[in-house]
Structure formats: structure tokens, C-alpha cells
User: Fold this.
Amino acid sequence: MNYSTFNTHSFLAGTHSLPGKTSNTLLLLTLLIALLLAGCSNDDTPQEPIVLNRNVVLSTASEVREFAKLGVTHLQGNLTIGVAPGGNQGITSIATLSDIARLEEIDGDLNIVGNRNITSLDGLNDLLKIGGDLNISVNEQLEDLDALANLESIGGKVSIVLNRALISLDGLNGVSGITALTIDDNPLITSLFDMSAVSEIGELWVDSNNMLTSLEGLSNTSISSIYIGWNQSLENLKGLESVTALESLTLSRNESLRTVEGLENLTSIEDILILERNNSLENLSNMGVKENGPTRLMVERNPKLTSLGNFKMRPLLTEADYQVILFINPELTSVDPLSSLSTMQVLYIFDNDGLTNLDGLSNLTQVNDLTITDNNGLTNLQGLEQLRTVDELTLVLNRELTSLEGLNGLTTVTKKLVMAANGKLSNLCALQNLVDGNGIMDEFELSSNAFNPSLDDLKAGRCTN
Assistant:
């Protein structure tokens, strides 16, 4: 009998009959062949892990194919697909990663950078762990990260930058261990990914994502430092409810940001708060910080901002490097957050025309550098009654300022006193204690005010015209 053409199905059905041992032998042989063939076709057969101990850079399609032939499952080094960090910043023609199908673990960084034709990360579907950083940047046609759905942990930073076709970050939903997250210049994404597996992120940087409308996904994540800038569609900060303490917070050039809703549970900002050019931001009433505000504050060019909310600068027992800059906020009416401070290094109040008083400075006794410039709502300096010592005091271009009332307690200016171009300033009698005690120790300049007496005039009591 020709075994190569033997009909097993017919034999088992009884359409062929062989006597005795021959029949039994053929039956066993046929079953054995069938089992062997079934085993050969089993795709789930375990394969031996293959470990490669070196850094790998794949910059061409042929290099991707050659690496795939190795069947590496565990790379003990960095893997770069595209342009090597620090190398020639060109764009590769790699179109697919589908051949890299066995890779499960990378001990170092994974860089996917500068690939013009890659539309997906299919081929990295088995990847479970990245020990270092994940950098996915400048991939012009990359649409999603779905192929990373099995990824469980990333030991370092995650950077998703300049992927102009990327519409979703959802492939990262299962990862844990991220130390810092940068989402920068991905114009089509509308939301972040679910970071419920990430308990803590050191720095969150969300910048220039024009379609981003939501920060949802961060609700279980503690964050140390936050920068949110140039996100033109973001209206609030919902999604940051789990953030209770920050080292720094920067909100910059978010055109549609109207409220800081989402920061209700934030109780502390240790270092710096920056509010810069948020054209729709009206107030900070949703921010939970009360007594432990920052030690450095910069509020610049927020045209609708009326209030800094209820927070107070962080009170410290020793002299601190407090720095405050309030710059071109025409609707700002109060500096109350500064009321907890007695000493400061820098206080710069420039072009805040809605500010009619300085009552929030009522506890201030010493400032190294005090500059009050171009605030057309100020008619006097009431609120500074406790101020005793200044290194440099500059009062310039406060067009409605008529009196220095509020500086009556000032006794020492160690370096420079400049008062210029305050067109209605005619009463300088609040400086009498300063002048009588010879407290002006160096430079003294009065010019282009309504009244500009000399120092000798002031000493002689001629302080108003």
C-alpha cells in the first residue's frame, strides 16, 4: 500500500479492511503521523528566550528585518528605532515594525524617533516591560499607540513629542512606574491616557497640544511638579483632583483656560507658582491652597484675572528668598496673598491698573528690591506702613500717584531711591522719617514728577509744593 496517499478517514470509517497485525500496525502508524503533524502546526509551542546584551539602533527597514531574524525576546540595553539620540536628526523611511514580534523586555530605553512612514507600532505587541525611558517623537504619520496595550511598566520617563497625526495615547493605559511624563506638540490628541496604574509622577509637562480638552486620567496619580502651557482648547484642570501638594505649578498661554477647577484638593505649593498669558483666566477661586502658598510667585499678562484667590504665601520662620512679580494684569484688584510676608527679596508690581491699594502688604517690614511701576490705579502707597528697610526702591510712571502716604515708617534705603515720571506726585512728606534719620545711604533720584525737591529740600522740610 502507498502510505503517502493512504486515506486515513476512509480507513477509520471501515471502508478498507486489512487482516490481523497489519491492520493494527497501520492504524497506530496513521495515528502517530496525525499527532506529529498536529504538533508541527501548533503555534503555541513555547520558544526559548533569546537575550541580547547591547544597545541596538535600527535606522533602515533592512536593519529592522535583520534584527527581527535574531528573534530577540529580552534586550539588555537601549533600542532605538529611527534616529539615535544625539545623532543626525534626519527622518527614516522605516514603514513597519511588524517583524519585531517576539520582543518582550527592554532593560534600557526605547526610542522611536524620526520615522516618516510608521503609522502604528504593530510589532511591539508583546512588549511587557521597559526598564528605562520611552521616547516616541517626530513620527509624522503615527496615529495611535494601541500596539503597546500589553506594556505593564516603564521604569523612567515617558516623552510623546511632535507626533502630528497621533490621535490617542490609550495604548499606555496599563503602564506603571512612570517617573516623568511629557506630552508636547501632538496637535490632534484630545485627552491623556488612563494612568490609574501610576501612583506617582515626578514632573508632568503638557505643552502645545491644541486639541487637548481634558486632563482626565490623572485622578489616581500624585504629581510633584506641573507645567501646562499652550494648550489652546483646555478650559479647566479637571483630572488633577488627586494632587494635594506640588513643588511648582506653571499655567502658561492656555488661551481657553477659564478656571483652575480640578485643584480643589491642592493644599500646598512649596516653591513657585507661575500664571502667564492665560487670556481667559478670571480667578483662582477653585484652588484649595490656603496657608501654604509658594515662596515665588509670577503673575504675568492675564488680562481677565481679577483675583489670586484665597491662598497666602508660605510663612517661614527664617528669612526666605521670596520673589513676587505682578506684571500687566489690568483687572487684578488685590495683593492679599502677600499678607503673610514680613520680608522679601524681590517685589515687582508693574502695570496692574486695577490695583487701587497695597493693603495686602500690611505685614511687610523689609524688601531687598521693591519696584512699583506704571500702576495707574494707585493714588498713594497705603498698605506699606510697616515697611522699614529697602535696599532699592523704584517708583516710576505711576500716573495717578499723588502722595507717598504709606511710606511713613521707612527708615533705611541702603542702595538706591528712584522716583521718576509720576506726573501727579506732589507730596513726598511721608519720607520725612527716612530723610531726618539720614536713611538714604547711596543713590537718590527724583525727576519728572509733579514736584522734585532735592535731598536738602526734604531735610529742610520742603516736601510738598
